[in-house]
Amino acid sequence: MQQKIIIARWLLLEPSLLLLDEPTKGVDIGTRTSIYTMLRQVARTGVGVVVISSDFEELLNVCERIVVISDGVSIADVPSEMLNEETLTLFAAPRTSMERNSAFLRDIARDLNGAAFWTLIEQDRLFCLYMAVTNSQADPGFRAADTPIVSDTRIPTALSSKSQEFIAEPGSSLATLLLSVRSSRGHDMGWIGVTVDGRSSLPPARQVLDRIQSFVEQITK
Fold first, then answer.
1. How many angstroms separate the CA atoms of 31 and 1, rounded?
2. What's the gap between Cα 170 and its chain centre?
3. Are residues 145 and 52 in the same domain?
């Protein structure tokens, strides 16, 4: 009740924006439901409502858009209808290794003079977690935090086939391979991919895969 009263007192001031930090933490199910109803009603009147929460179910059920921020930088800005708890968990995972993961992609993109990325692929849509592009000619057509339809990228054939061999895009010089990333417990953590400009000689796929696999083993111990 105290939580509801606090929100109601702020509403008496007729705000244009409500910023709520964990608004239902520690409350019972009935109160939580009534707070959600109150927030939806407020939003329908045109008041902006920003909810900061670690409760993924709450975010998915209440919010229209979900923004994930790490070290002051937005790394995802996605309509909630595109997400589920599993996908959101990967976006919101502890980012202590973010620089390490990004550094690996930058290194492999530089060494192969191409692009390297880490993405989730859900049916016909991808969710890019990390991205590094060294050669603009090998740009796969998306960036970190982007959520494009696979067919709207520059490498739809490769993203659909998910092959560990370099797959050339019809009518394009791009060639891409992907490797599935799984945790030590077998949980799906997405795909690491490498795109190169196929007009040059392609690097040995096995060599690239071994390098990626070695990195994956280090981070999933």
1. 7
2. 27
3. no
The domain in which residue 54 lies consists of 2-63
Give the number of domains in the chain.
2
Does residue 131 fall inside a structural domain?
A: yes
Examine the domain organization and report whether 184 and 132 are in the same domain. Answer: yes
**Same-domain pairing of 59 and 101:** no
CATH of the domain at 207: 3.30.450.40
Q: 91-102 burial, b if ≥16 CB within 10 A, otherwise e? A: bbeeeeebeebb
- pLDDT tens profile 80-102: 888 888 778 777 765 546 778 88
168: closest CA among 155, 151, 152, 153?
155
pTM: 0.74
User: Which residue pairs, CB below 8 angstroms and at least 24 apart, start in 91-96?
Assistant: 91/127, 91/129, 92/56, 92/68, 95/70, 95/71
Structure tokens at 69: 């921020």
Over the chain (221 residues), what is each successive 10-residue block's mean pLDDT? Answer: 78 88 85 87 92 89 87 78 82 67 94 95 88 96 90 97 96 96 80 94 95 89 73
Residue type at position 34: S
**DSSP H or E segment with residue 111:** helix 98-112
